[in-house]
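Input chain follows. Return structure tokens only.
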Amino acid sequence: MSIQKNLKLNYLFEQSQPGMLLTTAWLHEHGFSNQLIYRYTSSGWLKKIGAGAYLKVGDSLTWAGVLYTLQQNKNLRPHVGGLTAMQLLGKAHFLVKEMAVVNLYMDINKRLPSWLSTASPSPAFFRVHKITLFNKRVDESTLISHNIDGFILLLSCPERAVMEMLAGVPQQESYEHAYYLMENLSQSRYEIIQTLLEKCHSVKVKRLFLHLAERCQHEWLKKLQFEKINLGKGKRVIGKGGQYDAHYKLSVPKLTGDENDEQLPTV
């Protein structure tokens, strides 16, 4: 191999983080032509993962590396949220050694690259939620940077993660599981919660969040300015049967151990 080619390879390994998925766009941006990409792939220095995505020789495919590459695309910026964010931040009801599902949240109008379908490592896989749950002005302030396997990734803060998870109750997560997760928000920042509730577009999520917070008797509820939160009109039903919270006009399932009262006490 010529000195020039050797220097180019060294540059490739120096500029890319170990385990990072390399896209064609990234390679072009760093001076690698299609001809050179083909040559490196043929010689085994790069392994093609999907259409327009490669992994360096010796690197392992991980969900963190894949997501890091996705988040480098400023037009996409998917973040880890919901239950996965709570698990990674140690706020879940139980510890998880290996992710079975990685919940990603992104703008409903964005399209993910086709290579993602072949770059989801086992046993983890991505569940993509395309929703517009909040006003865009709260996006950056409620996302945090978190180190996962050497990659700095964007995650929802705990308060936002719970609201994202509540959007999937009861279809993807149970009411009871949501209650246990809400218990872990006792030390939450009421300022962040106030902002999220004011900017959230989902009446169901806002009512369910406040209902669960009251059941958990969180002290920060007393500091919220409820007059600034739009809770909509009419009744909402979460799951089948259960109890009715007249305060939030919300029908919810009974928790394990609940008494047989049809009316929930309200604050």
